[in-house]
C-alpha cells in the first residue's frame, strides 16, 4: 500500500505537491469514489483516475543524457526546435528532464518519468554539486577567480560560494577554459556569473551532476542509471548525503 499522491507522482503525471493539490480539489477518484484525504493509501489493485483519466502505472525510467548544444530541455517547443525527448522515440514512458540546461549549453542532463523523484532531486534545500566547464573570452585574473569562488552579485542576489579552477588559457586567442562547481540552480546562472566579472562565456558544458559524469558517452548518447545510482541520488535528495 502506498499513499495516493505518491502513486500519482510515480506515474509521471505531476509532482507530489501538485498531486496533493489535485486530491484536495476533488479531481482524483479511487474505485469510482472521489478522494479528498491526503492520507489515503492504495494498492496495485485499486483503480485510480486523475481528472477523469485512468492512471497507468508506468515502470520508472531514469536516464543520463549527454545533451548537445542547440537542443531545448523540454518535451515540446512551440517554435518547432529540437527537444531532448526527440532523442528517445523508443521509450514508451512519458519522460521529461530533471531541471534544465540552456539551449546553447551541452552536457549532463537527467530524465525520468518519476515525478516524486524529480521533485526531490531539484529541491533547493540539498546542495547537489553541478560542475561546468566554460570557455570564456579573455584571460581571467586570480583576483576575478577568487571573486567567483566567494560569490558574485547578480540581479537576483549574491551567488553562494563556488569551486573554481583554471584548466587552460590561450593568450594568443585571448580565451581560457575554467571549471566551475556550484550547487545552486538559478536560470542561466553560470553564464551570468562570468558576465558579472566581465568574461562572457563562448561555450559551456555540464560535466558532472553530483557523483555522475559523462564517461563513455558522446554527445547525443544516453544510458540508464543503475539501481544503485538511483538510490544514491535519492539519498542525496532526502538526506543530503550519498547512499553507500
From TrEMBL:
Its EC number is 5.4.99.-. It holds the Pfam family PseudoU_synth_2. CDD domains: PseudoU_synth_RsuA_like, S4. Residues 2-65 form the RNA-binding S4 domain. GO terms for molecular function: 23S rRNA pseudouridine(2605) synthase activity; hydrolase activity. It is an enzyme of class 5 (isomerase). InterPro entries: PsdUridine_s_RsuA/RluB/E/F_cat, PsdUridine_synth_cat_dom_sf, PsdUridine_synth_RsuA/RluA, PsdUridine_synth_RsuA/RluB/E/F, PsdUridine_synth_RsuA/RluB_CS, RsuA_PseudoU_synthase, S4_RNA-bd, S4_RNA-bd_sf. The keyword Hydrolase applies. Keywords: Hydrolase, Isomerase, RNA-binding. The keyword RNA-binding applies. This is Pseudouridine synthase.
Amino acid at each position: 500500500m502506498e499513499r495516493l499522491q505518491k502513486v500519482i507522482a510515480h506515474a509521471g503525471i505531476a509532482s507530489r505537491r501538485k498531486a496533493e493539490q489535485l486530491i484536495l480539489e476533488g479531481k482524483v477518484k479511487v474505485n469510482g469514489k472521489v478522494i479528498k484525504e491526503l492520507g489515503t493509501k492504495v494498492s496495485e489493485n485499486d483503480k485510480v483516475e486523475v481528472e477523469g483519466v485512468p492512471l497507468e502505472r508506468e515502470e520508472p525510467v531514469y536516464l543520463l543524457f549527454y545533451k548537445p548544444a542547440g537542443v531545448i530541455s523540454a518535451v515540446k517547443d512551440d517554435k518547432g526546435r529540437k527537444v531532448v525527448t526527440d532523442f528517445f522515440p523508443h521509450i514508451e514512458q512519458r519522460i521529461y528532464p530533471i531541471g534544465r540546461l540552456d539551449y546553447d549549453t551541452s552536457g549532463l542532463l537527467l530524465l525520468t518519468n518519476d515525478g516524486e523523484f524529480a521533485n526531490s532531486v531539484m529541491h533547493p534545500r540539498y546542495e547537489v554539486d553541478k560542475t561546468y566547464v566554460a570557455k570564456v573570452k579573455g584571460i581571467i585574473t586570480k583576483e576575478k577567480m577568487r571573486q567567483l569562488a566567494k560569490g558574485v552579485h547578480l540581479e537576483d542576489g549574491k551567488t553562494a560560494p563556488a569551486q573554481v579552477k583554471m584548466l587552460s588559457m590561450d593568450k594568443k586567442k585571448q580565451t581560457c577554459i575554467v571549471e566551475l562547481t556550484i550547487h545552486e540552480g538559478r536560470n542561466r546562472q553560470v553564464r551570468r556569473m562570468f558576465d558579472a566579472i566581465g568574461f562572457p562565456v563562448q561555450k559551456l558544458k555540464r560535466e558532472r551532476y553530483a557523483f555522475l559524469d559523462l564517461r563513455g558517452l558522446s554527445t547525443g548518447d544516453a544510458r540508464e542509471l543503475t539501481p544503485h545510482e538511483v538510490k544514491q541520488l535519492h539519498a542525496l535528495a532526502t538526506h543530503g548525503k550519498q547512499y553507500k
